[in-house]
Each structure stands twice: as structure tokens, then as C-alpha cells.
Specification:
By secondary structure, the protein is mainly α. It contains two helices and no strands. The radius of gyration is 56 Å and the shape is rod-shaped.
């Protein structure tokens, strides 16, 4: 019986090992395909991310260009307003200087000298009491 057992074990064991080998081989290939699919998906995601990064970079560069243009325009407006404010201040000072001077100095016009004239008091107005007293 023992001799037969030694004959049955290799006869039954060989097909069992063969089936086990095929199952392991198939599972290894399935695992390889899964890993390859995952690697492919990862590469696609990397490409997408790279493309997205480049798109974001272009968008950021466009926004930066718009902001720089806007900043330059605002700086130009500020300079224009500052020069307008200086010119307005100069005009206002000149106007005040003209208003503060009593008469413009004009050598062609001889102004009379008022020192020679007598100073007279303005005529008195009769008051209401004086009128009633006089007949």
C-alpha cells in the first residue's frame, strides 16, 4: 500500500502543481496588466497636470500683463493729476497775488498824489431831533 501511495502522489501531484503553476502565472500576468494600466493612468495624469500647469502659467502671465498695464495707466493718471494740481496751485497763487496788490504798477499812468489834498470830513446829516427843534 505504501508503494502504491508513492505512485499516486506523483501522479496526482504533478497535475496539481501544473494547475497551481498556471493559476499563479495567470495571476502574475493580471497583476502586471493592472500595474501597467496604473502606470499609464499615472502618466496621463502627469501629462494633464503638466498641461494644466502650463495653462495656469499662461493665464497667470496674461493676468500679470493686464495688471502691469493697469498699473502703468494708473501711474500716468497720478502724474497727470499731480501736474494738474501743481498748475492749479500756481494759478491760484498768481490770482491771490494779483488780488492782494492794490493797483498794478503801470509806469504810463500817473496816479494823483493824495497827500496834497485837504482832508475834509463828510457832511453831517441832520438828525431827527434837530429837525423837530428848528421852526
Amino acid at each position: 500500500m505504501r508503494d502504491r501511495l508513492w505512485l499516486i502522489i506523483p501522479a496526482a501531484g504533478f497535475p496539481f502543481l501544473l494547475v497551481l503553476f498556471f493559476v499563479l502565472w495567470q495571476s502574475l500576468q493580471q497583476q502586471n496588466r493592472t500595474v501597467q494600466d496604473l502606470v499609464r493612468q499615472l502618466e496621463e495624469l502627469d501629462r494633464f497636470e503638466l498641461r494644466d500647469r502650463e495653462g495656469n502659467r499662461e493665464l497667470i502671465e496674461q493676468q500679470l500683463g493686464v495688471l502691469q498695464t493697469r498699473q502703468q495707466r494708473l501711474q500716468r493718471q497720478i502724474r497727470n493729476l499731480e501736474s494738474w494740481q501743481r498748475a492749479s496751485g500756481d494759478r491760484e497763487r498768481a490770482l491771490w497775488n494779483r488780488l492782494q496788490a492794490p493797483f498794478p504798477a503801470n509806469p504810463d499812468v500817473d496816479l494823483p498824489d493824495n497827500r496834497d489834498m485837504e482832508r475834509t470830513a463828510p457832511p453831517k446829516q441832520p438828525s431827527s431831533q434837530q429837525r423837530s427843534i428848528s421852526p
